[in-house]
Amino acid sequence: MSVQKTVDRYRTTFLRYILALNADNLRKQGIIFLEEFKEVPRLKEESIPSDLIARFQKNLHQVTAPTSQDPSISYVMSSPHFTGHYISGLTETHTIAPRVREIFQGFDVKIILYLRRQDELMESIYTQMFHEGRADDFEQFVSDFGHKCFRWDTVLDAYEQQFGKDNIIPRRYHEKFFPERNSLIQDFCDIINASDLIIKTPSRQVNAGFSRDAMEIARICNPHLTQQEHGRLRAYLQSVSPKKPMERYHYFNAETRQRYMESFEKSNSEVAMRFFPDSRGILFPPPEDDTHVDYPGLSMESVCRTFMLCLLELDRAFAGQQSFTGTKLRKIENKLYNTI
Fold first, then answer.
1. How far apart (Å, rounded) are the C-alpha atoms in residues 153 and 121?
2. Which of 140, 227, 298, 313 could form a Cys-Cys staple with 216, CB 3.0–4.6 A?
C-alpha cells in the first residue's frame, strides 16, 4: 500500500486524475488505484466519531478483498489531507499519522511525501485563498502562522514514528528536481513501478490557477461578492485568464523571502541530512538562486481585456438564447468594443 501526500493542490488533483484515467492500465500492472475515501479529510480533526476508523477500515476491506490474497497486487491512495489542512500550517500530522497506521494495519505501507519549499508553499496557499473567495493582505496572512507551521521535520517525524524511516519516501518538489511539467507524475510512476501511462490534461482543469492579473482582479472583487458569486468569478477567470504551466506567483519581495526562509534553515537542514545524504544539509535551492520578476501591478488594459473575455465567455453560454441577460450582455460588448 502506497499512501501519497503532497501539498500542491493542483498537482495532487492532476496526479489523481492521471491515476484514475489509467486505472485499467495500472490494474494490468498489478497496481490498484483507490479513490480517496470520504473519511480521509476528517482524520485531522482532534475529536472524531468513535466509529470513523472502523468505517474507513470497512470500506478499505470491501475494495481490497477481491485481490487481498494476491501478493503481487499493490494499492495506491493519494490525498493532501494526509498531511493536515494547509490553513493550519500542517500541524495536525501527529494526530493523523497514528490513525493512518491503525487504518492500514496489516498492509505493508510506504509513505510518499512531496516537500515544497516553504515560501513557495505559502504563496500557493495564499493563492488558494483567493480561489475560495478571501481577500487577505499577504503580509498579514503570513504573520498569522506560528513558528511551528510548515515544518517538514515534524511532518516526517510523525510518520517515521508510526511506519519507520525505511518506509518514508520523501521528494523535494522544486523545479531544480522536477524541471518539466509532468516530472512529478513521472517520478511518482517510477516509485510505484508503473509505466506507459497516458498523461494528458483534462478538458476542464480542476483547481487550475489564475494568471497574476486575474488574481489581482479576484482580490479586489472578492469582498463584494456572495459565496455563489465567488464560484462564478473563479470559473470565468480560470477559463479566460488561466495560470501558465510552471508559472509562479511572487508575493514576497527578495528581502522578505530570504528572511522567511531563514526561519526554516535549521529544521530544513536536519531533514536534508536525515533523508537526502548527498545534499550537504541543503534541502532546497536558496531563494537567491531563483529568477524573480516583480509584479508590475494591474493595468487598465488588462482589466478591460479580462472583462471583455469574461463577457464573451458569458455570451457563449447564452448562445442561441434571446434572453434578457444575453441581450444586455451583447449591448455591453458593443459599447466596450467601441471604447477599447
1. 15
2. 298
| b/e burial code for range 195-233 (CB count within 10 A of at least 16 → b) | eebeeeeeeebeebbbbbbbbbbbbebbeeeeeeebeeb
Which of 234-255 are b and which e, b meaning 16 or more Cβ less than 10 Å from the residue's Cβ? Answer: bebbbebbebeeeebbbbbeee
Write 311-316 long-range contacts (CB < 8 A, 24+): 311/336, 312/240, 313/236, 313/239, 313/240, 314/236
Instruction: Determine the Cα–Cα distance for residues 150 and 263; give it in Å rounded to an integer.
Output: 11
- Report the candidate in 302, 308, 301 with the shortest Cα–Cα distance to residue 335: 308
Contact of 194 with 29, CB cutoff 8 Å:
yes
**Residue 41 burial by Cβ neighbours in a 10 Å radius (0-12, 13-18, 19+):** middle
168 DSSP β-pair partners: 111
Q: Are 245 and 182 in contact (CB under 8 A)?
A: no
Residue tagged 470497512 (cell numbers): 58
208: DSSP letter: P
CA separation, residue 111 to residues 83, 114, 189 (Å): 11, 10, 14
> Shortest CA distance to 119 belongs to which of 5, 263, 270, 281?
263
Torsion sign across C-alpha atoms 52, 57, 89, 262: positive
Backbone φ and ψ of 47, nearest 5°: -120, 120
d(CA 279, CA 275): 9
Distance between CA atoms of residues 326 and 270, nearest Å: 60
